[in-house]
């Protein structure tokens, strides 16, 4: 039977046409590339680096704030904060007014990793953007904004 023959049933899209599949493939490849760079320049994982980068860029924050800013799972953040603290990259201090709140900040060692790796990761972003022209970047950013809204729609 001809695979292009319409049987009247629902059309099946090959997995390669699923937006989520394509995003996952691209994300996986980009994460592998970033992990290699980070391994070579700092020895931290991509998740650890994202935590270091958020705190390095924005200053001290709580795990809950990190979770909101990065859209990372709280458990993933908690495990990585523990390892970053144990390895001397992060300091954890209790809030004086709310004993439940823990503030995370970079130690001198964490700040050094941030300062050393940020220029390399910014250069990588520039190199990735060089594959696209301005109109493609603008459209991609608009698409991300639209899909992020769609991802929050409970009716999808």
TrEMBL record:
Top-level taxon: Bacteria
Any Pfam family hit: MarR_2
GO biological-process terms attached to the record: response to stress
One GO MF term: DNA-binding transcription factor activity
InterPro entries, per the entry: HTH_MarR-typ (IPR000835), MarR/SlyA-like (IPR039422), WH-like_DNA-bd_sf (IPR036388), WH_DNA-bd_sf (IPR036390)
PANTHER family per the UniProt record, alphabetical: HTH-TYPE TRANSCRIPTIONAL REPRESSOR YETL, TRANSCRIPTIONAL REGULATOR, MARR FAMILY
Name by which UniProt lists this protein: Transcriptional regulator marR/emrR family protein
